[in-house]
């Protein structure tokens, strides 16, 4: 039986897109952690102690602390410590390997950079009154959605015939983009990206990553993720 208190600690926030992609990677790779749901307005001291920047997600391992969602995703599939299958670690299906292409690295950089910046402005357009909302949306389309559509017209996933880390890295952000003006998105000319997003939102992996946890309070018993 697993001793839950000995599992790595994941500080997480359900609605944070960075935390979502980390949770999906952990679950897909078969990693089990103890999840500490964080209220961003009242961050626990234990989180500040391990990560002064105190963003989520943070994964606390026995020998190091990972404070970037992409590092947590890579660790999820790369970790060979448990030795389930020494030849393949936690990635017998190649989710990490398939993501390691220049095109996929460029998509993640665009997502985390120009797209995220435009997405925030599109989402909170009233805070950026110097430009109309649609111009921020155009920036977001140019940064990520248009190149993503080109890829997905040729292949169902960013790992080609199968999904990979890159699909999961982009998904929570594309979801946010679609949700800003759902009616606009539904009639926008991006059929491949719309189908890709729909497929992921209906997937068991996404459902597993979105199971709610009550905010962690020191002294609580370990809350195992995935459930
Ligand atoms: N580069 C970081 C970004 C993480 C991030 O910015 N997370 C947000 C929540 S979505 C956060 O924790 N913000 C700090 C705060 O709101 O106080 C990563 O990839 O993990």
Description:
The chain has 227 residues and is α+β, with helices and mostly antiparallel strands. It folds into two domains: 4-93 and 207-225, Glutaredoxin (3-Layer(aba) Sandwich), CATH 3.40.30; 97-203, Glutathione S-transferase Yfyf (Class Pi), Chain A, domain 2. The chain is built from nine helices and five strands, in the order βαβαββαααααααβ. It has a five-stranded mixed sheet. Strand 1, helix 1 and strand 2 (33-37) form a beta-alpha-beta unit. Helix 1 packs parallel to helix 3. The model has no long low-confidence stretch (mean pLDDT 95). The structure holds glutathione (GSH). Glutathione binds at residues 13, 16-18, 40, 55-57, 68-70.
As for the CATH topology of the largest domain, it is: Glutaredoxin
- Structural class assignment: alpha+beta
What is the makeup of the main sheet?
A: 5 strands, mixed
Number of helices: 9
Supply the CATH class of the largest domain.
Answer: Alpha Beta
The count of β-strands is 5
First-to-last CA distance: 15 Å
Bound molecules: glutathione
Write a concise synopsis of the structure shown:
This protein is of the alpha+beta class and 227 residues long. 48% of the residues lie in helices and 7% in strands.
SSE layout and pairing:
Blueprint: E1 9-12, H1 17-28, E2 33-37, H2 45-50, E3 58-60, E4 65-66, H3 69-78, H4 102-123, H5 133-154, H6 165-180, H7 182-186, H8 191-201, H9 204-209, E5 224-225
Parallel strand pairs: 1-2
Antiparallel strand pairs: 1-3, 2-5, 3-4
Helix pairs in contact: 1-3, 1-6, 4-5, 4-6, 5-8
The structure holds glutathione (GSH).
